[in-house]
Amino acid sequence: MAVGDRTEKRLVGPVKLTATANSTLGSAVASGRAWVVKQVVFCNTDGTDRLIYFAINTTATVDNRIFWALPIAANDTLIWDTALVLNATDQFYGYSDTTDKVTFTAVGWEKEV
Q1: How many domains does the chain have?
Q2: Could you say which DSSP state residue 113 is in?
Q3: With a cut of 70, which residues of the chain have pLDDT below it?
Q4: pTM of this prediction exceeds 0.85
Q5: CA 15, CA 39: separation in Å to the nearest integer?
Q6: Cα 42 to Cα 71: distance, rounded to the nearest angstrom
Q7: What CATH number is associated with residue 62?
């Protein structure tokens, strides 16, 4: 693979969110790589509305929030089309207001930089 080449893939997940604040979701982007995230999917498998919390970067801080207390209806799926770039050592962080009821999946491209 040459620098700039990309490989379409599932980057993370599906992984169940926990109720632990700022849990890591999947592994960090490897050294010498970048992820171009094209779609993020949150699926609420519960019969109750849920709240999700989602951030990116090397740490989960207030400055890195993307979704915060975002409601997802019971038995519904949120699909977010994006062009979010994660660089080496960046990763996803997230949690829900309850454990094991919401799943997270991210798809896109991985490329050498």
Answers
A1: 1
A2: -
A3: 1-4
A4: yes
A5: 15
A6: 11
A7: 2.60.120.340
CB 95 within 8 A of CB 103: no
Alpha-carbon span 86 to 35, nearest angstrom = 5
CA separation for the pair 32, 83 (Å, rounded): 19
Record the tokens describing residue 91, joined without a space. Answer: 């990763």
Q: Which residue has the tokens 């109720």?
A: 19
Cα gap 17→105, rounded to integer Å:
10
DSSP annotation string for 45-84: -SSS-EEEEEEEESS--GGGEEEEEEEE-TT-EEEEEEEE
Specify if 1 maps to a domain.
Answer: no
What pLDDT score does 93 carry?
96
